[in-house]
Design a protein that fits this description.
- The complex is a heterodimer of chains A (249) and B (64).
- Chain A is globular.
- Chain A contains 8 helices and no strands.
- In chain A, helix 4 crosses helix 5 and helix 4 packs antiparallel against helix 7.
- With 249 residues, chain A is mainly alpha-helical.
- Helix content of chain A is 75%, strand content 0%.
- Chain B is elongated and about 45 Å long.
- Chain B has a domain of 31 residues.
- The longest helix of chain B is centred in the middle third of the chain and has 22 residues.
- Chain B has 3 helices and no strands.
- The chains are: A mainly alpha (249), B mainly alpha (64).
- At the A-B interface, helix 1, helix 3, helix 4, helix 5 and helix 7 of A face helix 1, helix 2 and helix 3 of B.
- Chain A: Keywords: Membrane, Transmembrane, Transmembrane helix.
């Protein structure tokens, strides 16, 4: 048997993707809880102070979930999100593996996770940076959500454009330049076309906003690094004969 | 569908394609419930939204 055995079935890869995503989601949850929650608490304190000042106390009087409940729900959110991203990563890996021009399965898995981090986290992050509670006008949530989804699609298109552009060249340096150019053209067009959104109140503390945004970026960085590494490790491990039957679709 | 796909099997089979599409739809539904639902799809009012509120903010999606 060769080192990695035959290529794994979609079912086998999917289970590994979901598991890797669950692990990544829980790790991201630990980071978010430790680094991010103090910032969320501070922002909510400002939100409540503002509500009291304007005499609008009704918002938090009938809260559905307590703050402690929300801090527990944080782990549910990151774990579910991680598992879903793991399932998508495993699917992308299954469908695209042959088209990725590397003999290394590990590189293919890490490359896809890196592409996802770039396309669906970093590109959206710079156009629509995440905001803590107390920032954002509830009346514009639909428009902000649509713009956010649009920039996620543009981020993925930009990564795809980078790969297509790189493949037009043979020399390694020219490949890197072409990839960068292809990526930047798509991202620039997206950034220019999509509306600018700035709903941060002038009174909101700048250092708190900065720290929250770093915590949010860190959460996604932990998520995708852990997902890529865990999936690469699980997906490239040889399957033993007796276990292969149980994980085939 | 052959049990173990080897490196020589050609392209993606129709069955694999439909399975993959169904999985992608399910994963996107989970992502939607975690990151974008405002109670319309989950039928839980705003309960799920509020429960995963902190996760939304820290994962960086628009929340409210």
């Amino acid at each position: 048997m060769p080192l990695n055995g035959p290529a794994k079935s979609y079912g086998a890869l999917l289970i590994r993707g979901l598991l890797a995503g669950l692990i990544a989601g829980l790790l991201a949850g630990v980071f978010a809880y430790t680094v991010g929650e103090p910032k969320v608490d501070a922002a909510i304190a400002i939100e409540e102070a503002n509500a009291h000042a304007t005499g609008d106390d009704g918002h938090h009087a009938d809260e559905l979930v307590s703050r402690d409940g929300q801090k527990g729900g944080l782990f549910l959110a990151t774990a579910l999100y991680g598992a879903a991203m793991g399932g998508l990563l495993a699917t992308a890996y299954t469908v695209l593996r042959r088209r990725l021009r590397t003999p290394s399965d590990t590189r293919a898995a890490l490359g896809l996770a890196g592409a996802a981090l770039l396309g669906i986290v970093l590109v959206p992050y710079l156009k629509y940076p995440p905001n803590p509670p107390a920032v954002g006008n509830p009346d514009t949530i639909d428009q902000r959500t649509i713009s956010y989804l649009a920039i996620v699609v543009i981020g993925l298109v930009a990564v795809w454009a980078a790969v297509v552009a790189a493949r037009t060249q043979h020399d390694q340096w020219r490949q890197a330049l072409a990839a960068t150019a292809g990526f930047l053209v798509v991202v620039t067009v997206g950034y220019v076309l999509l509306p600018t959104i700035d709903e941060v109140p002038g009174t909101f503390p700048a250092d708190l906003l900065w720290n929250f945004r770093i915590a949010s970026l860190g959460t996604q960085a932990v998520m995708w690094s852990a997902l890529g590494l865990a999936f690469a490790a699980l997906a490239t491990r040889p399957v033993r004969e007796q276990t292969r039957e149980t994980v085939t679709v | 569908m052959p049990k173990a796909q080897t490196i020589t099997t050609p392209v993606v089979s129709p069955r694999l394609l439909w399975t993959a599409l169904a999985v992608v739809a399910l994963m996107l539904l989970i992502t939607y419930l975690v990151a974008f639902d405002q109670g319309a799809v989950s039928r839980s009012g705003m309960y799920l939204h509020e429960l995963m509120h902190d996760g939304r903010h820290l994962l960086g999606v628009p929340c409210h």
